[in-house]
Amino acid sequence: MAKENSENPRFICGLHATLHVISGKWKPLILFFLNKGPTRYGELKRSVRGVSDKMLIQQLKELESDGIVQRTDYGEIPLRVDYSLTPFGRSLVQAMEPLCGWGEEHEEDIAAAMDRRKASR
Amino acid sequence: MAKENSENPRFICGLHATLHVISGKWKPLILFFLNKGPTRYGELKRSVRGVSDKMLIQQLKELESDGIVQRTDYGEIPLRVDYSLTPFGRSLVQAMEPLCGWGEEHEEDIAAAMDRRKASR
DNA sequence: ACGGATACTTACCAAAAGGTGCATACTTGA
DNA sequence: TCAAGTATGCACCTTTTGGTAAGTATCCGT
């Protein structure tokens, strides 16, 4: 009976909600690679250089439970599993594109600011 | 003389770079409120409900060092400082809008997924 | 002179995120 | 039979992040 959709106190704005889904050290990279098509676990691991098994699995599970990616187990004899974007995931990746663009345009400024901060710690 | 802008190993993609700037528990909220115009420290603190002085200052400093917000000290007698978005900051907030939209459209799904995860811990 | 407001700063702690490495169960190839 | 590859799980530890609470310096109203 209360106001529910008018003023949801959970998130301050849509962006805030979105960030809960895409933040995590490896998620943007995973999404980036999955956007190219379904990818097997091992292949993904080799693509996302530097990620550990624990992290890769963990982030994939979160993305899966958020309905962003889909895990497919082919039940085949030498273990075979792959991951792909759901339609929901594809819509997210689309919405991310302007941020990708902004990041690309200002990559150098961002990197410089990061260095400055790291240096002054 | 090496390849520098062709294959920068720093970020895997633009989005990755952008996330370095906007991630932080209070940053999206701060940006959200600053988008409405210059805001004094105390006012901002009252707007961003629940934030502590330490966090608010820290995130403002990071946003400032990234060139996203501008701090203005009026040097007036009862202390007076305000924060506003720089043009760079405004361009960022613009690029964030699609993500805001996506978040708004799917707020309920996102919240539901968060609850599911929290419940199963 | 005292309490409250302004805009911070600092020290200390707890919680969350992330990393390392070993273990599993099954298979294929040497 | 042994090593290597497949896709995970688990325990332990460090780093990063965020929270609490206090202190600072200046000013104003009473």
From TrEMBL, chains A, B:
Keywords: DNA-binding, Transcription, Transcription regulation. This is Helix-turn-helix transcriptional regulator. It comes from the Bacteria. One of its GO terms (molecular function) is DNA binding. The keyword Nucleotide-binding does not apply. Residues 13-111 form the HTH hxlR-type domain. InterPro entries: HTH_HxlR, WH-like_DNA-bd_sf, WH_DNA-bd_sf. PANTHER family: TRANSCRIPTIONAL REGULATOR, TRANSCRIPTIONAL REGULATOR, MARR FAMILY.
